[in-house]
Write a structure and sequence with these properties.
The chain has 94 residues and is of the alpha+beta class. It is built from one helix and four strands, in the order αββββ.
């Protein structure tokens, strides 16, 4: 099987990042955190649109929400997420 290798340009990375952060901003505006952002949960199409997927660990925050529990894929989790006392909607971008 022949696989082609293409370099990812800065503009492609910028576009992907824009779509991912826009998706997270939308979720946060709805008081929802994804809690499992990783490459496998990002879907892209041929036109460069990237969408956040797999909301199995997502949580809707309310005035009555307790401290966020530790969720996510361990190998993709930033060490900062181990400090449960400092968690809020920004845990998606740490």
């Amino acid at each position: 099987m022949h696989t082609s290798r293409h370099k990812i340009t800065e503009s492609v990375v910028r576009n992907f990042t824009h779509h991912i952060l826009s998706g997270l901003a939308y979720l946060h505006s709805k008081k929802t955190v994804h809690r499992d952002i990783k490459g496998a949960n990002l879907l892209d199409d041929a036109s460069g649109v990237v969408k956040v997927a797999d909301f199995g660990l997502a949580k809707h925050l309310s005035a009555h929400s307790n401290v966020l529990s530790l969720k996510g894929s361990p190998h993709w989790k930033a060490p900062e997420k181990n400090n449960i006392n400092n968690q809020n909607e920004r845990v998606n971008v740490i």
